[in-house]
Amino acid sequence: MPVPRQYHSEALTLRKFSLGEADLIVTFYTRDNGKLRAVAKGARKNSSRLVGHLEPLTQVSLSLAHGKNLDVVTQAQVMSNFPPLKDNLESITKGLYLAELVDGFGSEDQPNPALYNLALDTLHAIAKDPDSDLPLRYFEFRLLTVSGLTPELYHCVECRRDVEPGAHRFSPNVGGVICLECNPEEARIRPLSIRALKVLRFFHRGSPAQARQLRMDAALAQELKTLLASAVSFWLEKEIRSNSLIEHLQRPPQTSV
Amino acid sequence: MTTDSIPSASPTLTKLIGELNKLPGVGPKSAQRLAYYLIRLPEADAYALADAITAVKQSVVFCQECQNLTDSSPCSICADSQRSRDLICVVEDPLDVLALERTRCFKGLYHVLHGALSPLNGVGPDQLKIKELLSRMADGQVKELVIATNPTLEGEATAMYIRRNLDRGELKITHLARGLPVGGSLEYADELTLSRAFQGRQEL
Lengths: 257, 204
Hints:
Number of strands of chain B: 6
Strand order of the largest sheet of chain B: 4-3-5-6
Largest sheet of chain B: 4 strands, parallel
Mean pLDDT of chain A: 92
Low-confidence stretches of chain A: none
CATH topology of the largest domain in chain A: de novo design (two linked rop proteins)
Order of helices and strands of chain A: EEEEEHHHEEEHHHH
Radius of gyration of chain A: 20 Å
Strand content of chain B: 5-15%
Strand order of the largest sheet of chain A: 1-2-3-5-4
Oligomer: heterodimer
Low-confidence stretches of chain B: none
Number of strands of chain A: 8
Radius of gyration of chain B: 22 Å
Helix content of chain A: 25-40%
C-alpha cells in the first residue's frame, strides 16, 4: 500500500533556522515520530498562515507532506504556549535549555512518547514556578531514564555491592554510584553527598508532583546541578550551549545605569 | 559535493566558485552558475562589483553611537541635529533601521544590537551590542527607549533582558505594538498574537 502523501502529527517546536528568502527549517519533537526537521515555506512573511504557530517552545498540531529531502509543513495550529512561560526571561531560557536537551537526546523516526510527555509536563512546571531549578533537575534525571540511561543509584556499578550510606561517589561515564574501594579505569569520579544521593533516589521513585515539592539549600542545589549536567553532557558528547545564559542570569546583577 | 572535488581546467574559476559557495543560500550549482555569469559579464560591470566589495570591506565601520553600519562615524542619522536625542529605538539588525526609516514616522535615534539572544546558537548578551547600549544610556539624557526587536521568542527575550538592565524610574521603556498584520486574517492568527491584539485594542 502506498504511503499517504499527507500526514498529521502533534509536536513540540524546538528550534528554527532561516532558509532562503522567506522559508524556515523547523525542528520538532513529535509524539508519534520522534524528532523531525521540516520546511515551512514562506513562514517568515507577515502574511503567512504559519507565522506565530512555529515559534520555539510551542505545542502544535501539524499537517505535513512527505518531501524529497525534508517534509513540508502545510498547516500548523498552536495547541499550547505554556502560559505564562513566554512572559518571563528565566522561564524562556530554561525552556530553551530543555529544547536543546530534547533535540540532543531525541532521534529521528524513533518515537518516544515518554520523552514528549516529560518535556510538555516540565514546560508547564517551569511556567508555574520560573525561579525554581527543580523542574529542570527532575527533567535531566528523567530524561536519562526515558532514554534508557538511568544511573545506578543502589549498587556500586563496578563490584555490584550495595553502597553504604556516606561511602559513595558518582561517575557519569561509568553509569552511576561507585563505592570507595573501586576505582574503574577512565572513570570520571565526582564526590556525591548522601543528601544528593537521596534526592536522586527520590527523583527515581517519586512522582513529578512530589519531586517538585522538595526544598533544598543552595549547596545541595549546586551539587545536583553540576552532577546532572555532567551526566547529561557526557551522553550528549558536547557542551550544552544554552546553559551559559541561565548562568549569566543567575549571577548577581551588574551595576545598573 | 565540495568545489575542491570538481575537476577543472581553470583553478582560478574553481577558486571563484568555491568563494561564491561560501555565501548564505548559495549551493555548489548556484555558485557555478554565478561564476559563469560573472565571466560573461562586461569587464566594467565585473570590476564595479569587485570594487564595491573591496570598498565595503575597507570603509564600512560601526557608528560609534548607534552601532549601525556606516561609511563615517557618527552615521548620518546620529549626526542629524533635527532628530530627537532623548528618544532611542532599539532594533536587531541594520535592515530594521531601513524598514523603520521607510515609515517616516520615527524622528529619534536608533541602536542596532546586531542580533538577538539565541542561547541555542551560542548568542548571549556579550555577543550583542548591549554593553554599548547600556553605556549610551548612562548619562540619563534619554527619556524614552522604544524596543523594536522582532516579535519572536528570541526577540522577546532580548527585550526582557534590556528592560531588566535599564530598569530606572525616570526612563520610559516601550515596545512596538503586537497584533494583527495588515492583510492578515483572524482565522489563521495564533492565540498569542490574538490575545496581544485584544490587549492593545484601540478606540475607533
